[in-house]
Amino acid sequence: MFIYAMFQQYFPYELRGHAHKYTQKLVTYFYPYIQITFHELTGEKLKRSDAYFAIQNYLADHTTATAKRLKADVVKGSKSLVLTMDDHEQVMEEFQGIKIWWSSNKNTPKRPSFSFYPKTEERRYYTLTFHKRYRDAITKSYIDKVLKDGKAIAVRNRERKLYTNNPSDSWGSSTASWSHIVFKHPASFDTLAIDPARKREIMDDLLAFSKSEEYYARIGKAWKRGYLLYGPPGTGKTTMIAAIANFLSYDIYDLELTAVKDNSDLRKLLIEISSKAVVVIEDIDCSLEITGQRKKKKKAKKKTTKKGESEEEKEGEDGNESSSKVTLSGLLNIIDGIWSASGGERVIIFTTNHVEKLDEALIRKGRMDKHIELSYCDFEGFKVLAKNYLSIETHPLFEVVRGLLEKTKVSPADVAESLMQKAVEEDADICLNRLIRDLESKSAKEGEQSKEA
Ligand SMILES: Nc1ncnc2c1ncn2[C@@H]1O[C@H](COP(=O)(O)OP(=O)(O)OP(=O)(O)O)[C@@H](O)[C@H]1O
Predict the structure, then answer these.
(1) What distance lies between CA 139 and its chain's CA centroid?
(2) Which domains does the chain possess?
(3) For a pocket test of ligand 1, which of 235, 405, 409, 421 has the largest count of ligand atoms closer than 8 A to its C-beta?
(4) Does ipTM come in above 0.95?
(5) pTM of the entire structure?
(6) Ligand 1 centre distance from Cα of residue 411 (Å)
């Protein structure tokens, strides 16, 4: 390594193309090895390239040899622990049978530098060394792979955010904007109580979407995918949204349409949404003006129903009209139009308990590409919940539960509530028996109701 340093000083040969692309210096010698250095950049320069940080992530995550010798360190701006290489530490890895050496170093400037952008005392850099006969494989494939993987690891490890929109008022004193908190929801596809085959299908769909940047560009479509989640209350729509965001490592933008004054404020909010985002509009049927059809139905109904109902419906309409003037066409124009021009990896999700009330234009394929019905708890769903809540996969009482679930309509939320331990001494038997009692009483009630009807 000493020899490299000497040659680097006296016989440097820079490949400018690569130097620009990777913020690197590629140096070759009479010696058969090539070295590339990737410098830590600060200030404005950092925006141009984050190659150094991508490599840092890659080395911490990928190099098995490194992993044993890594030390825990806290990376700037993040509270999560990240493993990094020690100064002057060297690790070796193999890529397609090619040996590659990475080393971590630092420079301390001898003289203070005067610059518009403040500089840190020390400058860190990674050096990559390999035999010059593999120059093409390394510069064309390996470095790209490292940078891509390193960036993906950064996305996975970053602190994600849950954004909600602040109400904008109709007098213009407050404008539409987002507030955020750290998003930490434990939901995952593993803990989601739905049919395993459907779960796999949704995960495959999401995965394919997240890897399809080039495909979307080629077919000339905006890189977005729409999901419509519908089903009765407590069947897991919100939980699935959290699981999707966790699965893709995206931020969530929870858009409350009734708090948006008009289409122009909606446009402002949607334009601000970053890439890698799940945009959620929950209970879309409750956001009036969006459901044009529902309004028409209500008006027709008013003439035929008794006085009390008619007044109640009128109240609902007026209330919603005064709170938001967002229209269906406004929402669609922004999603289809502006987003298409702005690129970026976004999943948009609408949820509703009443899919039949939604305007066809809103949920047609191409806008809401995937319609997912979440329904009452079946035996497969119950088994997932039993595993989540009681850590059991079988039990003699499972068969009783299966029989009751076949004749009772109960949401996963209700099943989860019955299964939940209410005291430390409660074991699986107690919780399952409680569930059985609850299911029996629900089934009896449903029987009585159907007799009355
Ligand atoms: N399919 C499911 N898998 C796992 N847990 C579930 C599922 N459905 C419901 N739950 C549990 O029930 C609670 C309520 O579910 P959730 O809020 O996701 O339902 P929802 O369909 O969004 O309801 P609503 O339509 O009322 O908003 C969750 O906190 C979760 O613990």
Answers:
(1) 31
(2) 2-157 (no CATH), 161-373 (3.40.50.300), 379-452 (no CATH)
(3) 235
(4) yes
(5) 0.70
(6) 8
